[in-house]
Design a protein that fits this description.
By secondary structure, the protein is mainly alpha-helical. It contains 4 helices and no strands.
Length: 112
Amino acid sequence: MFQNLCDGIFFDQLQISLSIVTFTVFQFYHLASVRLRDLCERLDIDAELRQQIWTCFEHCVVHHTELQKERHLDQLIMCAIYVMSKVTGKDKSFQDIMKNYRLQPQAKSHVG
């Protein structure tokens, strides 16, 4: 009986942990999607290129997790925009990407 109780508690804790991880991953993807969409709109990037940028970003997140080490989500997004715009010949300068990024609410510095 004690073993069944322990197994039940372990299973409950595992479910809670998985729920937290699932929620965190969902939040990460949602935030990335919102920021990418906004930046693409500011840069006048069409839907086809935006989808390619998202695919590049997602590939990096899933298959090259080392790129996330000591980097911010927004850095990965901006790099994906830059790379895919170069690859497709729809060049956007990194300066232009940065200029438009700074217009986003989260880019404001609150350090005093």
